[in-house]
Amino acid sequence: MEIEQIGIVEARKRLGTLVSRAVHAHTPVRISRSAEENAVLISEDDYAEFRRLREQAEVVEFKERIAKAERGETPALSFTDADDMFRHFGVTRDGQEL
């Protein structure tokens, strides 16, 4: 499915139409503010379905990890100190990403 892409200025001009298309035709649109900043406008129903599918996939992954751990297939992590642990997970003590 090819997704329409428009700039943020054009999106402002067409917002009502874009929202209607997202809600009634389930047509998403990618809105670009810059090369690095993009968002996708979708209906609330489509977003709820996305969240449901994502949560479902996370449950499956979690169950697979539990099964691996129960079979002894998950290596234990060890750290020299708390700072070593935070570095391993890519965060600082206050939860900021490194």
From TrEMBL:
This is Antitoxin. It comes from Sphaerimonospora cavernae. It holds the Pfam family PhdYeFM_antitox. Belongs to the phD/YefM antitoxin family. Antitoxin component of a type II toxin-antitoxin (TA) system.
